[in-house]
Amino acid sequence: MGGNGDRRREAFEACFGGLAAIGRDPAGGWTRLAWTEEDRAARSWFESEAAARGLAVERDPAGNLWAWWPGSGPDAGGVVAVGSHLDTVRGGGAYDGALGVVSGLLAVGELIGRGVEPERPVAVVAFADEEGGRFGVPTFGSRVLTGALDPTDVLRRVDQDGTTVAEALAAAGIDPGGFGPDPARLSRLGAFVELHVEQGRGLVDLGQPVALGTGIWTHGRWRLTLTGEANHAGTTRLADRRDPMLGLAAAALAARAAATELEAVATVGRVVVEPNSSNSVAARVSAWLDARAEGEQTLDWLVAAFQAAVEDAAGRNGLSVELTCESRSPAVELDPDLTDRLDACLRATGLEPPRLPTAAGHDAGSLATAVPTAMLFVRNPTGTSHSPEETAELDDCITGVRALTTVIEELACR
Ligand SMILES: [Zn+2]
Question: By C-alpha distance, which of 69, 128, 63, 65 is closest to 97?
């Protein structure tokens, strides 16, 4: 590939390496939670990388950063926006979010370097608090922007230390009073494209570096409470026990069985046991079911099958059961026309992008409710995400940047 290839690799490593140096967690991986010192450093990294390419950065009223291609200003319509997020979960990987922001900066920088003139405004966006790792509200910045989240409600949310979102924003130099949606900005957007590392092994199995997204699965979280009776682990006869741990065991197996049957996913990943004593039969177990499926009906079936199996186990073990939905986000279909257009322009460069759905939430899912939105996924050899094992080959990252460059050129420059 010669000089151009080497130049692209160096540019990628320099830009990506700058962000990856921020928030290294001594416990492993990367931790950049929203509105912390690490987040502030990542946002200032974004501002200087944008400035180095001549892009002008501004912040919207939802706390998201927008870097504008000069001369393409924020006031005209038909804006083409690309981007992702800078924050991570605790002990997360280097690529989730970061890859999309870095690729956006490099793609716009490449077009500027080539002397391409945009016909429509172009921006690289870094969305605020996508992961919800601090306040438990994922896709925070993109949903405040679209109005899907009520700002007065979320400003009161607290982190583990009792700091509210409003206090965290103020500490980061952002006035919580001006916080809220920006419908005028949304109405100027013509398209949004998010490039993201794949959080599964779809592209590994297909032997392709880059895919186009079809949609985002519906996702819900339910709290299960199983109540039995605390008793002595030695003296209580088995026949006399009302042990909620047996209900929990049935619940974990039922989640797996229903998900397998319905080609969905379900996880019991969090449990609170009372009194949590090694020589007592437990009194109560609370567990959380995270379940995701391609369609709403499938998710309903999954939860119904889970509930039936848990109630059956509860009946056999003398337990009472309560299952309550804590959150549910609908399935999102990415824009089929925009996706077909991207498919055609990528095929013209020799790529053959397969189409993949995702069971992970993304800012693209928030934007898709208001703006024609598409997603690009870059191959992840481990298929792992939200973990230090998350990775992508340098060559695939370069292919992703080139794909995004082609996409911006197609949407904004002709
Ligand atoms: Zn992400």
Answer: 128
Token pair recorded at residue 93? 């990987």
CA distance 203 to 215: 16
Phi, psi of 125, rounded to the nearest 5 degrees = -110, 135
CA of 130 to the centre of ligand 1 (A): 7
Q: Is the dihedral of CA 199, 204, 206, 209 positive or negative?
A: positive
- Tell me the one-letter amino acid at 297: Q
Residue 42 CA to ligand 1 center (angstroms) comes to 15
How many angstroms does the Cα of residue 233 sit away from the middle of ligand 1?
Answer: 45
* Cα separation values, 412 from 69, 111, 197, 250, 343, Å: 11, 11, 24, 54, 16
Strand runs labelled E in 300-414 = 320-329, 332-333, 355-358, 373-378
* DSSP code at position 55: P
Q: How far is the CA of 362 from the centre of ligand 1 (A)?
A: 6
In the block, tokens 């959080």 appear at 199
**pTM of the entire predicted model:** 0.89
CA of 86 to the centre of ligand 1 (A): 9
Give the C-alpha separation, 55 to 71, whole Å. 9
Residue 280: CB atoms within 10 Å? 16
pLDDT digits over 36-95, tens only?
999 999 999 999 999 999 999 999 999 999 999 987 555 678 999 999 999 999 999 999
Half-sphere exposure of 182 (CA within 13 A, CB side): 18
**Which residue matches tokens 């292919």?**
399
Instruction: Tell me the pLDDT tens digit for each residue of 229-268.
Output: 999 999 999 999 999 999 999 999 999 999 999 999 999 9
In terms of Cα–Cα distance, which of 99, 17, 111 is closest to 72? Answer: 111
Report CA 257 to chain centroid distance, whole Å.
Answer: 26
Q: For tokens 């089929």, name the residue.
A: 336
